[in-house]
Design a protein that fits this description.
Shape: globular
Helix content: under 10%
Largest sheet: 7 strands, mixed
Strand content: over 45%
Number of strands: 11
Order of helices and strands: EEEEEEEEEEE
Structural class: mainly beta
């Protein structure tokens, strides 16, 4: 059974930094991609980062490139999302998702999800 557990959310001031963690179990990183998505009230879930061993790389959309960084610690089965220079527009519930295969931008292509964690950026 695949399980994803997020942690590290909370309140941060604009311009500050935060690191989210996603502990994955029941899957192997060689075959699965792990992505971070976020969902603000009234908006669709959007991708903000993805990492894939099979593609040997990480991906960030232009909207967050330079401020968000995804990384993985294989020894801890944990994927991190470092948020830097946070803005109030980053306020959302952040989810980690997993899928067999390469990274994908659409949330519907990820069958496995964590419970989500709130990130609030104050101005």
């Amino acid at each position: 059974e695949v399980q994803l557990v997020e942690s590290g959310g909370g309140l941060v001031q604009a311009g500050g930094s935060l690191r989210l963690s996603c502990v994955a179990s029941g899957l192997n990183f060689a075959d699965h991609s792990i992505a971070w998505f976020r969902q603000a009230p009234g908006k669709e879930r959007e991708d903000v980062a993805c990492i894939s061993d099979r593609e040997n790389g990480s991906f960030h959309p232009e909207s967050v490139k330079g401020r968000f960084t995804i990384s993985v610690d294989h020894a801890k089965n944990t994927v991190y999302l470092q948020i830097s220079n946070a803005t109030p527009e980053d306020t959302a519930v952040y989810f980690c998702g997993a899928r067999w295969g390469p990274c994908a931008k659409l949330a519907a292509l990820y069958p496995y999800w964590g419970q989500g964690i709130q990130v609030t950026v104050s101005s």
